[in-house]
Amino acid sequence: MSLFEDGFESNDFTAWTGTTGAPSVQGGVKHTGLYAMQAAMTGQNYASKTFADQSTCHARGYFRFSGLQGSAAWQQGVMTLRDTGVAQACRAEVNCPTSDNTDFYWSLYDNINSARNTSDALCVIDTWYCVEVAIYLNVNGWIRLWVDDVLESEYDPVDTSSVAHISDLFFGSYPAGYAHTLYGDCAVIDDAYIGLEAAAGGTGSPGGVSSIMGQLVVNRLV
């Protein structure tokens, strides 16, 4: 069941609960339609949406970077699911796991257990990516990350029961610290898998996966 959808076609953030920092809506770089969000990666600049409490929650967005810069153990978050005003649960991010400052990978952060799983999926600049992060709150729960309809990272099973419910999404730069721009578009929150936009061949069910269902995937631990 869809809980929220917004492609910024109102040219503002009226569909969102609020913003932090100074994200803006612009029409120069977008994935679909006339507008998309842009957020400076110099700090916390994101839109937030509060929704009805969920025990299983998926968030999907399309993201693009004007530049990537970092150092060993640098991360750039793009979507964070959380219990409103209480605790962050999980985050989709890009990670620079080595000090060469050249290779950046899509990564899944488990805020509940303070664990990060950096996948083998490269992220490059000036390219749109469909990113979906999801969590199931249970003693035998799971946390998953899809990039372009491929399951790239997961913790399954994992104890996520310390978080009461998921009721908030941060969409944009969180955290960061470099002078580049993050673009975001086509935000969706749902209680089931979302996948690619229909125009991009989406089916509403997971596509190719890089793991066997029910098996913990650790492509690149950092």
Secondary-structure blueprint:
Elements: E1 2-6, E2 18-20, E3 24-26, E4 36-40, E5 45-54, E6 56-65, E7 74-83, E8 87-96, E9 105-110, E10 115-122, E11 129-136, E12 141-147, E13 150-158, E14 166-173, E15 181-190, E16 220-221
Antiparallel strand pairs: 1-15, 2-5, 3-4, 4-15, 5-14, 6-11, 6-15, 7-8, 7-14, 8-9, 9-10, 10-16, 11-12, 12-13
Topology pattern, helix = H, strand = E: EEEEEEEEEEEEEEEE
Number of domains: 1
CATH topology: Jelly Rolls
**Overall 3D shape:** globular
Oligomeric status = single chain
Beta-strand segment tally: 16
> What gap, in angstroms, lies between the N and C termini?
34 Å
Can you summarize this structure?
Helices cover 0% and strands 51% of the residues. The protein is mainly β and 222 residues long.
Q: What can you see in these coordinates?
A:
The structure is a single chain. By secondary structure, this protein is mostly beta strands. The protein has one domain: Jelly Rolls. 0% of the residues lie in helices and 51% in strands. The strands form two sheets. Strands 1, 3, 4, 6, 11, 12, 13 and 15 form an eight-stranded antiparallel beta sheet that branches. An eight-stranded antiparallel beta sheet has the order 2-5-14-7-8-9-10-16, with no helix packed on it.
Summary tags:
single chain; 222 residues; mainly beta; Jelly Rolls; 8-stranded antiparallel sheet; globular; disordered C terminus
